[in-house]
């Protein structure tokens, strides 16, 4: 064979593919800059990026380059994601004007300003950054703008004819046109979802819309009067908009099914229209009243309007320093008839049993109860000062209560004696309890709560021979078997299969801890394996060389672990992808990202003043007792603003695809939860 002779595989067969196939390949890069660089490959590839229907620019993009790229782009855009760092208003206005002519789908723009959302000083100095005019997006279906407190003037003319969703965050509104005029039916005839958060310049907000279904208003500084006329509105949320002024609001709607009112309420100045269809209500009750309008219990007067409601969510708020504040739970004299109650406790280290007991004795028809602790309570160690009165009154310790309908309970638990004592009392009150879910915090033992109360309530199991055995003896027998013979007993009957698969029962089965991983989530290679087996031979490859040796994988970051599987992320061509692997078997599966721009990974932390600082949170869910398949959950929200949930994506290893699930999730007090109410 002569040197330099061409081999058959030297032929460029990839470039011979049709344009639509090559465009699909470029879409998988998930990065507009990377797609543009393919123009250097050959003349065939030159200009292919300009045919992409979706463009995603990294979070630190130069707005001038974004404008140039959009000007050279030829195809209609169904999706445009742009991220910038402290951009000036002039170049932002320039590329938005170009995008307005091309966009026929979704626009997501985030202008991150270092420190803008930290410490509550986001608007200080914002005036120096200037303002710009928003163009009219005639064909866009969804627009999400997080402007980093740039000034914004909404267009005085033009119709957003196809706009369905609009989200505006960290904005200083400027005239001459009012936001209410721009989003009303004449200008936005198809608008269904509106979200405005962390904004100023909206002293009088008036919206008239015949299409609006969902509306979320969060921290509108300086709001004095709110008027909403939306006959089709189904969801409405108001959060900290009237903090420094008397609330004046008129919400005219007949179809509302979900109402979140986390703000000052005065029935003489707030009119909420016809609430006969309401299914879910969310509000705050201050256990101790301070001498400030914000801390009045006006929400109780809103509760008085309802005789029956399906689902009620209450935040019970305790100030850190009770001082001479007055205990005002006696102001709550009745609750609507309800079946589902969620109580979110922001107790700041205080005992909550007295207030919670006062609420529960008005819930005779309750079927499901959820108690959640605020993240600040789980992470901080506030202690009641000596002589604190938060445990008063103490009637919950002696008075009997019968919750005849309560069947399901879910509780966040800390290792605190008063919490354990209250949960034990709760178990005696719930006489028909069927399902208990407790999230134990730190080192608290489930036996401290469950075993004394659950003895005698164990479910019975029907065997093949027709004899009925209590649940406990089979568990004691099975707990003495090695792991492999134990799981062979799952084929005896459905009852035995359920018994072995039961999560509480599995705690009794033999489990020898040979080692565990420490760290993860803090950066690349931020973990180590602790070997407890006593064997000199490593049980697992803690460096995960079987992953890092793979083509294209240089660095991996441990994100999550669940029931023996680990979730890693790695960076390829400016985009994040995932790997799920078993360290014991070294089996692994690659998972592509769902199509979200690169992002820093941080843990979910909620601070009352600062807000949520993370941008993307990814979780691995795997239970081999339920299924051999795993799921990944990815929450993406605008930096520092939990109220601006942009996307929720779920990946299933069974189907091998991501699906968007944003509309099925809602935000409440720093927690993400699956919304059971469908609009």
UniProtKB/TrEMBL annotation:
Protein name: F-box domain-containing protein
Region (Disordered) residue spans: 453-472
Any Pfam family hit: F-box
Domain of life: Eukaryota
Residue span, F-box domain: 17-59, 469-508
């Amino acid at each position: 064979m002569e040197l330099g002779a061409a081999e058959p595989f030297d032929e460029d067969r990839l470039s011979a593919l049709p344009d639509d196939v090559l465009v699909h390949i470029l879409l998988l890069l998930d990065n507009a800059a990377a797609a543009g660089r393919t123009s250097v490959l050959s003349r065939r590839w030159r200009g292919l990026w300009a045919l992409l229907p979706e463009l995603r620019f990294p979070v630190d993009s130069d707005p001038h380059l974004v404008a140039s790229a959009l000007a050279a782009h030829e195809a209609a855009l169904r999706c445009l994601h742009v991220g910038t760092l402290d951009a000036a208003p002039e170049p932002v206005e320039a590329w938005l004007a170009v995008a307005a002519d091309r966009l026929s789908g979704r626009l997501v723009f985030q202008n991150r300003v270092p420190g803008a959302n930290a410490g509550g000083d986001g608007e200080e100095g914002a005036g120096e950054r200037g303002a710009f005019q928003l163009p009219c997006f005639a064909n866009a279906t969804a627009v999400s703008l997080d402007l980093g407190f740039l000034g914004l003037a909404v267009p005085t003319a033009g119709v957003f004819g196809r706009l369905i969703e609009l989200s505006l965050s960290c904005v200083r509104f400027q005239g001459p046109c009012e936001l209410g005029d721009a989003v009303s039916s004449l200008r936005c005839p198809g608008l269904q979802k509106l979200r405005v958060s962390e904004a100023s310049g909206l002293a009088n907000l008036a919206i008239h819309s015949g299409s609006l279904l969902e509306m979320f208003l969060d921290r509108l500084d300086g709001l004095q009067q709110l008027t909403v006329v939306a006959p089709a509105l189904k969801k409405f949320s108001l959060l900290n908009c009237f903090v420094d002024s008397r609330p004046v609001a008129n919400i005219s709607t007949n179809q509302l099914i979900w109402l979140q009112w986390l703000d000052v309420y005065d029935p003489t100045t707030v009119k909420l229209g016809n609430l006969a269809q309401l299914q879910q209500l969310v509000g705050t009750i201050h256990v101790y009243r301070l001498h400030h309008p914000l801390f009045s219990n006006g929400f109780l007067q809103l509760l008085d309007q309802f005789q029956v409601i399906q689902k009620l969510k209450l935040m019970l708020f305790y100030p850190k320093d009770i001082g001479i504040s007055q205990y005002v739970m006696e102001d709550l004299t009745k609750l609507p008839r309800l079946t589902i109650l969620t109580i979110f406790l922001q107790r700041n280290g205080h005992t909550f049993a007295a207030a919670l007991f006062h609420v529960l004795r008005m819930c005779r028809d309750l079927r499901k109860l959820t108690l959640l602790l605020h993240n600040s309570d789980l992470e901080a160690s506030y202690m009641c000062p000596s002589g604190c009165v938060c445990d008063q009154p103490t009637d919950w310790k002696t008075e009997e209560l019968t919750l005849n309908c309560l069947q399901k309970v879910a509780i966040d638990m800390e290792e605190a004696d008063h919490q354990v004592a209250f949960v034990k009392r709760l178990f005696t009150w719930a006489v028909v309890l069927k399902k208990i879910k407790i999230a134990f915090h730190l080192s608290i033992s489930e036996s401290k709560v469950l075993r004394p109360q659950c003895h005698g309530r164990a479910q019975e199991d029907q065997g093949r021979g027709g004899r009925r055995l209590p649940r406990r003896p089979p568990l004691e027998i099975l707990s003495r078997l090695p792991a492999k013979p134990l799981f062979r007993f799952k084929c005896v009957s459905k009852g035995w299969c359920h018994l072995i698969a039961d999560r509480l029962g599995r705690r009794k089965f033999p489990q020898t801890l040979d080692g565990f991983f420490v760290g993860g989530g803090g950066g690349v290679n931020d973990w180590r394996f602790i070997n407890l087996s006593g064997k000199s031979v490593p049980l697992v490859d803690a460096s995960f060389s079987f992953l890092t040796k793979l083509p294209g994988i240089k660095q991996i970051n441990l994100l999550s672990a669940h029931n023996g599987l680990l979730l890693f992320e790695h960076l390829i061509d400016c985009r994040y992808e995932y790997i799920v692997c078993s360290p014991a078997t070294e089996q692994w599966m690659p998972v592509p990202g769902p199509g979200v721009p690169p992002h820093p990974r941080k843990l979910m932390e909620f601070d009352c003043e600062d807000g949520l600082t993370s941008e993307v949170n990814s979780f691995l869910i795997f239970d081999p007792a339920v299924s051999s398949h795993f799921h990944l959950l990815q929450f993406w929200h605008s930096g520092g603003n939990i109220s601006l949930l942009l996307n929720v994506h779920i990946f299933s290893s069974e189907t091998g695809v991501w699906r968007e699930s944003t509309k099925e999730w809602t935000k409440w007090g720093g927690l993400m939860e699956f919304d059971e109410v469908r609009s």
